Amino acid sequence: MQLYSFFNSSTSYRVRIALALKGLDAHYxxxxxxxxxxxxxxxxxxxxxxxxxxxxxxxxxxxxxxLAIIDYLDARYPHAPLLPNEPVxxxxxxxxxxxxxxxxxxxxxxxxxxxxxxxxxxxxxEKDRWYAHWVAEGLSALExxxxxxxxxxxxxGDTPTLADCCLVPQVANALRMGCDLDGYPxxxxxxxxCLAQEAFQRAAPERQPDFIQ
Length: 213
Fold this sequence. Notes:
Layout: E1 2-5, H1 10-21, E2 27-30, H2 41-44, E3 54-56, E4 62-64, H3 66-76, H4 87-108, H5 110-118, H6 124-149, H7 162-176, H8 185-195, H9 198-203
Parallel strand pairs: 1-2
Antiparallel strand pairs: 1-3, 3-4
Helix pairs in contact: 1-3, 1-7, 4-6, 4-7, 7-8
């Protein structure tokens, strides 16, 4: 398998976690988002929207969008499942994962933040306020969800799921951006537990070949 990724991309980080949890190897291709490599015609042949991650498997199947990739991996490699079979638990996992993937990340990704500064000409301070606002909105809801329905050291039980694959990169980004996370004890407990596990450590940004200080 081939994985087109950027070390600091939270969506790529989700896929790297899923691969590591399943014990799967993928040849890593760094796509430098800071240098605009995602906008080249060569990369757009792989990703029409010009983003990462992109996974190309050993059958030539090429996929973009992190949740679609993880769902595909779960179907093709059912060991260490990331989506439970039990209907309510499966729905809870998807509820938490989509809260991150749909309600937080799209408002704060590189393309949106770049548009705010380059086109709308907001200041760096205003951009940071925007970022912190949407993180707080989303993580407050996620904290409430996990307090009500979460159990065990992971989001939902004793084994990691898609929800954990999404939570860890989002928290890492929020910490990197200086957001105050003291009001989210359940989220932080899950995050710290995950980081103590080898699979999550292997997927971390600083362990990737294209890591930049």
